[in-house]
């Protein structure tokens, strides 16, 4: 479980995060949802320690992270897997080398152990046999899968994914979302996914935090997100016609249930 408490961050006097608190549950895909520029990526970077918040704290399974001693922060960092926006694979390395990289950096596994783990992770994301392919030979969806394999290779306890399905067609996006959710449940990982995609919300949103102008305006699940009375959230959700139609169907079902 990851807890954040009263996170504030400004850049050059411009407030980006304005006191955000919340809990991200273990074994769940926790979503950070919001429009472009609302501070989702900045919050994720504050949580992993890439950006230092001006105020507030982050706790990983009870261990205080922000401002703690370097060795304790490093110990936590070792347990974090990160899927960057755009996958961020190393172009000059093949698939196998990309997935092996964090194992070389973070573990003292032998070459054979590393290869076993690489092959296991590639198989887990449905990419067995692609070991020698270069990133340039892969489709967008395959690159995301390699990114996920690389993130989970060192047995991560925490997984962070920034816009994992941006730039993918809806079906491939769905497969990536489901893969992240499956892996989260299978290995009991605390996963945080940054997204502005309503399909992801409905498909994998166990816990959802809605950010608006640096504040958390709503939190809930995919089951109750269509019923909120937060105007900013509704404006965000129902900008999408499909969502408006889904809401109508839900209301109609409710009407039919009440005699
Ligand atoms: N290093 C930085 N220096 C100055 N301003 C920054 C920095 N990083 C982010 N910002 C600003 O913080 C605000 C929030 O950015 P952030 O990247 O968190 O948005 P986001 O919600 O992730 O948007 P998107 O959905 O487009 O990725 C933006 O106005 C951005 O310009
Ligand atoms: Mg972002």
Q: Which helices and strands occur, and which strands form pairs?
A:
Elements: E1 2-11, E2 14-24, E3 29-33, H1 40-48, E4 55-60, E5 63-64, H2 70-77, E6 80-83, H3 95-106, H4 111-124, H5 140-152, E7 158-162, H6 170-186, E8 190-195, H7 198-204, E9 207-212, E10 215-220, H8 231-237, H9 241-257
Parallel strand pairs: 3-8, 3-9, 6-7, 7-8
Antiparallel strand pairs: 1-2, 1-4, 4-5, 9-10
Helix pairs in contact: 3-4, 3-5, 4-5, 5-6, 6-7
The structure holds adenosine-5'-triphosphate (ATP) and magnesium ion.
Domain ABC transporter: 2-238
InterPro entries: AAA+_ATPase (IPR003593), ABC_transporter-like_ATP-bd (IPR003439), ABC_transporter-like_CS (IPR017871), P-loop_NTPase (IPR027417)
Protein name: ABC transporter ATP-binding protein
Write a structural description.
With 259 residues, the chain is α/β, with parallel strands linked by helices. It has a single domain, classed as P-loop containing nucleotide triphosphate hydrolases (Rossmann fold). The protein contains nine helices and ten strands. Helix 3 runs parallel beside helix 5 (140-152). The radius of gyration is 19 Å and the shape is globular. The termini are far apart. The model has no long low-confidence stretch (mean pLDDT 90). The structure holds adenosine-5'-triphosphate and magnesium ion.
Quick recap:
The chain has 259 residues and is an alpha/beta fold.
Rg is 19 Å
CATH superfamily, by name, is P-loop containing nucleotide triphosphate hydrolases
Approximately how much beta-strand content do the residues carry?
15-25%
Q: Termini distance?
A: 43 Å
Low-confidence segments, given as residue ranges, are none
Per DSSP, the total helix count is 9
| Number of extended strands | 10
Tell me the helix content.
Answer: 40-55%
Strand arrangement in the largest pleated sheet: 6-7-8-3-9-10
Largest sheet: 6 strands, mixed
What's the level 1 CATH class? Alpha Beta
Bound molecules: adenosine-5'-triphosphate, magnesium ion
The total number of structural domains is 1
Q: Give the topology string: H per helix, E per strand.
A: EEEHEEHEHHHEHEHEEHH
Mean pLDDT across all amino acids: 90
As for the CATH topology, it is Rossmann fold
Q: Describe the global form.
A: globular
User: What's the CATH architecture name?
Assistant: 3-Layer(aba) Sandwich
Q: What structural class results from the helix and strand content?
A: alpha/beta
